[in-house]
């Protein structure tokens, strides 16, 4: 058995998927069948060809239908703008491909629900890549919440601060188009919202939804733009339609918390930070140090208690037996998260049972649930911060 792999979209995150499938079989002993790296597809032919060469895929395509129609391809990552997910995922599922789609599931709740319906009917797998659950610090904190070391979360504080929109000359792109809530909230707030539930359980209500757009218009780029690139721009401007900054308060069944998403937070290129305050202590995580956390455990040494730094190593999730050097201190980054995510997807595709596999990727149903929370934040903002129940 050989599994043929393709990636659609070779921009910022598409390259991470392309690389991740190469690394995936090298994590742990090989329990996967032979993998064939078939195609990287991008509407821009130069990008598809260059990315295929760079990551050792056989060819570059420019139309996703070439992937759907290729019987040699089994597994496909969909890594293009959110508004394009539905059409491409639909075509792939109908062609019998296993699909790993990027977050958020789509640009509208209606199309995300349609994708979940298609996934239910499909004979193949459809999963959504919410990569950060695999960062060692986040996985360890969740384990300590669940095994009682930290215990039940009382208070959650999370922020995903980025600075990619700080420069008003950063070119307009698909990220700046769409209604309020489709900006920073959907782009990075989707990750943060997923992690809040990963640690605290289901959100039951949101309130205090608020959005700001700081940069009202941005220049049109002269050529193709990838990710957050500061490319050459024309003197034509286009309106920024959605949120540069978003915030809300979440209520969980036994906790509450505040969440903030920003793309105009100067000095924070990728500032995902989380704190949990729990019945037996507290912990905090920052994306700059994914395999190092700060841990505080309630103790009986008045005057001597305090936060301590814990370097996660071979005893902790995602570091143990995965990377070539699997000891504390070797470090772990966002790209590794994609590799473990790809490995988890391939293990599920080939039927390795859940108890012998990495934690599964989220379902499209969970992707819809994530977007329902974001839609409730939009409703809350429209009603001046009123509470909206889920
Ligand atoms: N999980 C993460 O950490 C993470 C990080 C970044 C982006 N994302 C998600 O990944 C997706 C893509 O984001 P990005 O930042 O990589 O975007 P990007 O703009 O950098 O790249 C998108 C690429 O898609 C190509 N493209 C456009 N239309 C296409 C089509 N019809 N067929 C094939 N290719 C097409 C473009 O030419 C471009 O190269 C989004 O859903 C985003 O939310 C996830």
TrEMBL record:
InterPro entries: Gfo/Idh/MocA-like_OxRdtase_N, Gfo/Idh/MocA_oxidrdct_glycsds, GFO_IDH_MocA-like_dom, NAD(P)-bd_dom_sf
Keyword Acyltransferase part of the UniProt annotation: no
Residue stretches making up the GFO/IDH/MocA-like oxidoreductase domain: 139-283
Keywords: Oxidoreductase
Pfam families: GFO_IDH_MocA, GFO_IDH_MocA_C3
Stretches assigned to the Gfo/Idh/MocA-like oxidoreductase N-terminal domain: 4-126
Protein name in the entry: Gfo/Idh/MocA family oxidoreductase
